[in-house]
Amino acid sequence: MAALPKRIVKETERLMAEPVPGISAVPHEDNLRYFDVMIHGPSQSPYESGVFKLELFLPDDYPMTPPKIRFLTKIYHPNIDKLGRICLDVLKSTFHTPFLQTPTRLTRAGNWSPALQIRTILLSIQALLGAPNPDDPLANDVAQRWKEDEQAAIQTAREWTRQYAKA
Amino acid sequence: MDSDDEFMSGLSSQDEYFGGVEESDDGSLGDEFDEDNPDVGFSQDKDMKPGKKAYEVDFKVFSPEDIQSHQDKQIDEVSAILGQPSEATAILLRHLRWNKERLIEAYMERPDSVLETAGLGPESAQAPTTKVVKGFTCEICYDDTPRLETYALKCGHRYCVDCYRQYLAQKIKDEGEAARVQCPTNGCHRIVDAKSLDLLVATELKSRYQVLLTRTYVDDKENLKWCPAPNCEYAIECGVKKKELGRIVPTVACACKHRFCFGCTLSDHQPAPCSLVKQWLKKCEDDSETANWISANTKECPKCSSTIEKNGGCNHMTCRKCKHEFCWMCMGLWSEHGTSWYNCNRFEERSGLDGRDAQAKSRQSLERYLHYYNRYANHEQSAKLDKDLYNKTERKMTGLQSTSGMSWIEVQFLDTASQALQTCRQTLKWTYAFAYYLQRNNMTEIFEDNQKDLEMAVENLSEMFEKPTAELAALKVDMMDKTSYCNKRRVILLDDTAQNLKTGEWKFNVDVTMGA
Ligand SMILES: [Zn+2]
Ligand SMILES: [Zn+2]
Ligand SMILES: [Zn+2]
Ligand SMILES: [Zn+2]
Ligand SMILES: [Zn+2]
Ligand SMILES: [Zn+2]
């Protein structure tokens, strides 16, 4: 295996030395690009007191491209789909398709920047748990319900948290 | 109308011509390059051609070099007006999606904020350089080696040159972005300007970068579109606007010979307007299972029931067994085709049908659709078969050249005939989608007559390709006559339909404005 870039070494060291409150990220011993992540649900959100497991992987061209990250714990959230994939601007690169001949030449712009870090990404995800955005949905059925009957949707999110995200 | 008058009357139709003459308000190439510099443009200028038909639109073909020179010229012009260097002007123009007027207006009002939002702070004229900064750590790779070369845009966000290069390579190569690459810092919207890119982009990526810049120029302009043919690098300029697409079908032809619709970039679909094409293709896709059986390549002879396989494009079938002659499309007697009561192309609404019988109604609506779909699909299929047959014939002819003494030039009539067949079948195909949505009125009969005439002309020409190769040389004159007759019939049909479309005479049973 190729030597780990200094950037990843330093980031990992810092994650260990100064952990973010409510978040932990531990690299696998046999693959230092693969992290087990835990995020505590923010207080006063439907995910409060839940502990969510995620997996995070740093691709070869990281940090030029964003880390790959997904929820392993089942979660009821308009921006997270059944497979645990997350709809978050900062997790996407911008993809223009200038060689495509159709008039729709631009897919939604992403906001990934190589100056962002694992730490900032995980904080963004935690913030997303505190502020679900049904207007930019990934899980359409959940978003639909969120818009139609927010109270009921929040109730379901609470139940799922109790059931699947036990500390 | 007599086909000879038709050619004369073309001259008068030019006055009422409607596509592309609209005053452009978006700084289109049209007004800039036609008047100021007529030599810059590419040839193919249909303006110059007298007697433009109602179905023709003005367009120009641009080579990659033309596109480049148009960009450069526009940059120079605006640069002089704004008093900004050309690099900065280029960024400003790209930033405002090549809307020259908007840029000049905005710049005159508040130059600083325009420069700022385009990523050009004060002193953008200064040449960029890389720098060694004492005690520097790169925030991307965490390298803190002394004497590390670094770079920062005017925003001051500094990274090592290696990271900067990698970042730009990622944007250019993998993400296809060039004109609006931002500073690598999260949330910093400073645009990486042309000079910085020149300094930092690896040589092997420079050409790709140039291509991308050129592409944004075309992508950003409503009156420019890339030719959709695979690997074609030409662009077409045409002034027809989206809102006009219910009244005109803007077919353009690229220098690569590909003919396509400027409105929707699909292959030529005259006379059907874009939105009908869209709805028709959707319908065919939805109903494909029901309709599948009819496009099969074998049918039974209506007289002796022996199986007949269609191996050429011609729809005049002669049963090998019983010599019965019939029409492949309607299975009717061929002898009745070409007479006054020929009705192979027209769907007869059965007026006597009981309107209250829902099942019969829905059956009739399916039959009606199948009537048109059958003919649409058949011309598509026939065009392919015509082509196959031509290819075979051409190979044989090439072989015959030595024995018959005919030169390459002399066998070109076959190529011309084959081209005409392809184009006419393409038109015929779309006349059936057009007819499917057309509401009957006193003009539909003229349309159907034109359709029928073109169809007969096409079948007559198509039939000649089935003659033994040895006989073809002797049929040269006849074939050339039939070819020009086909083309003439096509012009008549297209001109008539386009004329009525323009004046809103056609009534359709669906909405034809684009966006429907
Ligand atoms: Zn910056
Ligand atoms: Zn660096
Ligand atoms: Zn082309
Ligand atoms: Zn079209
Ligand atoms: Zn027969
Ligand atoms: Zn027929």
From TrEMBL, chain A:
It comes from the Eukaryota. CDD domains: UBCc_UBE2N (cd23813). Keywords: ATP-binding, Nucleotide-binding, Transferase, Ubl conjugation pathway. GO terms for molecular function: ATP binding; transferase activity. The keyword Transferase applies. Pfam families: UQ_con (PF00179). Residues 3-166 form the UBC core domain. The active site is at C87. SMART domains: UBCc. InterPro entries: UBC (IPR000608), UBQ-conjugating_AS (IPR023313), UBQ-conjugating_enzyme/RWD (IPR016135). The keyword Chloroplast does not apply. Belongs to the ubiquitin-conjugating enzyme family. This is Ubiquitin-conjugating enzyme 13. It comes from Lepraria neglecta. The lineage of its organism: Eukaryota, Fungi, Dikarya, Ascomycota, Pezizomycotina.
Automatic annotation (TrEMBL), chain B:
It holds the Pfam family zf-C3HC4. PROSITE patterns: TRIAD (PS51873), ZF_RING_1 (PS00518), ZF_RING_2 (PS50089). One of its GO terms (molecular function) is zinc ion binding. Residues 22-38 have a biased composition (Acidic residues). Its EC number is 2.3.2.31. Residues 134-348, 138-184 form the RING-type domain. InterPro entries: Ariadne, ARIH1-like_UBL, E3_UB_ligase_RBR, IBR_dom, TRIAD_supradom, Znf_C3HC4_RING-type, Znf_RING, Znf_RING/FYVE/PHD. The keyword Chaperone does not apply. Residues 1-49 are annotated as: Disordered. Signal peptide: none annotated. SUPFAM superfamilies: RING/U-box. One of its GO terms (biological process) is protein ubiquitination. This is RBR-type E3 ubiquitin transferase. It comes from Lepraria neglecta.
